[in-house]
Design brief:
single chain; 120 residues; mainly alpha; 56% helix; elongated
Amino acid sequence: MSLPHWSYVAMLVFCLAGTLPLVPAFRLRVLRQRRRLALTILLAGTPFVVWDLYATHTGHWWFDAGQTLPPRIAGLPLEEIAFFVVIPLVSVLTFEAVRAAGRRGGVRAADDRSDERRVS
């Protein structure tokens, strides 16, 4: 199997690697709320999986076998189905991290320290 077969998987891993550290950094409890998270992923991903199934079966688009792994579920690459799990997950993690940062007062930018500037 060549490297292009793994590009989709690598992108999903990259997304997870960028957002999973938010869980301990902001003490997020998202992963502990499994039913709520599963429902969110299911509601977010299902319409897109249905659309993908329709679009691929009607020939509107297809997945290049040279750029995806061989396993298919109902004609869809395994990575495509994983996409509709990973992307809602990282979206929820990012949203919750932003909310947590807002509750903590956020991070002030260096240019936003008007109270520390001295006027001559």
